Amino acid sequence: MDMNYVLTLGREAITLTLLVSAPMLISGLVVGLIVSIFQAVTQINEMTLTFIPKIVAVAIALLLFLPWMINMILDFMTRMFGSISTLAH
Fold it and tell me: Which of 5, 14, 21, 85 is 20 to 30 Å from the Cα of 64, by its Cα?
């Protein structure tokens, strides 16, 4: 196992983490921005008004993208388990 392989493996793991978390983070960001604009326009400063829609949006994004996320993680883990035999050299 050389340094290039370790760096490539680390880069793939970080990229996978970003890809898997992106749908939930982006949906929370968009909903938070919409709610903040709504609060600024109506001058309502209610804390639960920002919290609850974000939680619902993240939960919906998780439900919608869960099969894709599991597929991506399983593909990565299958490749990792498949390459264990080549790491002993």
Answer: 14
Contact 1, 87 (CB under 8 A): yes
The token pair that represents 5 in the structure block: 């392989």
Structure tokens that stand for 64 in this block: 């919608």
pLDDT digits (tens, 9 = 90+) for 33-52: 999 999 889 888 887 888 89
Determine if the pTM surpasses 0.85: no
Which helix (H) or strand (E) segment holds residue 64: the answer is helix 47-82
> Which residues, 6 or more positions from 19, have their beta carbon under 8 angstroms from its beta carbon?
72
What is the rounded end-to-end Cα distance, in angstroms, of the chain?
A: 7
Q: Cα(39)–Cα(46) distance, rounded to whole angstroms? A: 8
CA distance 89 to 86: 6
